[in-house]
Design a protein that fits this description.
alpha+beta, Fructose-1,6-Bisphosphatase, Chain A, domain 1, D-Maltodextrin-Binding Protein, domain 2, 2 domains, seven-stranded mixed beta sheet, 8 helices
Length: about 270
Amino acid sequence: MTATDRLLDARERVLLSAIRAAGRQARTFFDRRRDLKIEMKGAQDYLTEADKAVERLLSERFAKSFPRDGFLGEESSERPGEGAWVVDPIDGTANFVRGIAHFCVSIAFVLDGAIRLGAILNPVLGELHFARLGRGSTLNGRAIRVAETHRVADASVEIGWSTRVGNAAYLAIVGAALDAGANVRRAASGALGLAWVADGRSDAYAELHMNAWDALAGLLIVAESGGRTNDFMANDGLRRGNPVLAAAPGVAAELSRCTGISLPPIPS
């Protein structure tokens, strides 16, 4: 066993324990959401005390277990370190505050420029997607694979919306996907959108800009489930964000054309 294997073994154990604790806390807040104070960070950008509390729980757990690790969360400033925990405490906050049980806790661990671990937990449904680089992906401990869809005309595709990109660009890729015959939907949690590609409930997820805390865990889970993903880490995607495309192999090339998001070549 290599030193990196030992390092990741330890972090995997803590990650799985921490995300379950975070999920329990998020579920408690969800059950009493009508009492929560809600702030707006921007247009359609919600912040609640639940986001802050869940992120604080995760930051403290990782700092206690691995004080030399960094931390990058949606609601807090970056803490540098040898590796980095990248956290969205509640992805899908707009759903959360409206009582829609389509939100999640999303956590990735990055080391040497690569996403090594990823976990996404929907605490209401009790669904935990997990992946470790090179070891495949699971849903509640059972191996998962992307869909075997081969035609975009048979595909269900989720396209995320971002205030960082003009509406015309968003509408253009929605139109292109519809013209190609896809069923297009949007469920307002990018992390869960990626998780659903990994387990075959969707055939692709695309968004013209995502932040690392929304995307990294899901991108690893899709890739480890046999899907194709774009190179999110290029051009300092960790801190600046990037477009996202994750798709079942049979529809990936056509959806890359529809969205304008490039995919790396398939290894020969």
